[in-house]
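Tutorial handout. Part one gives the primary structure; part two gives the three-dimensional structure as tokens.
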Amino acid sequence: MHPFSRSTLESRGRGNASAPLRRRLAWAAAALIACAAAQAQAPTDGPEDGVPPPWELYDTDKDGYVSAEEAEAQKMPASVFRSLDMDRDGRLNREEFSVAPLLPAE
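Part two.
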């Protein structure tokens, strides 16, 4: 006979031992489902949490690029500019600029 079979447990006087365990497992499952549902409904960082920086505000000389000086004039941190300048030419084209961090929505 298997040591954890129902008949073995009942013969040892532990036939109801699994009932509290099942209740605990049911509560744990319910808690996990509730947490998952709450997390799914929680707001996420998305487009509604900010606006993309306007290209026209940054490209002040209208040459089709945002230079480090133009970005600095708009208070873009130098570290952000460097991280966006993928081809390391010292200026941002529209594609590079398009992944700039969102500005806070007002």
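Part three, for discussion. Helices lie at 6-11, 18-41, 55-58, 68-73, 78-84, 94-97. The two ends are 71 Å apart (CA to CA).
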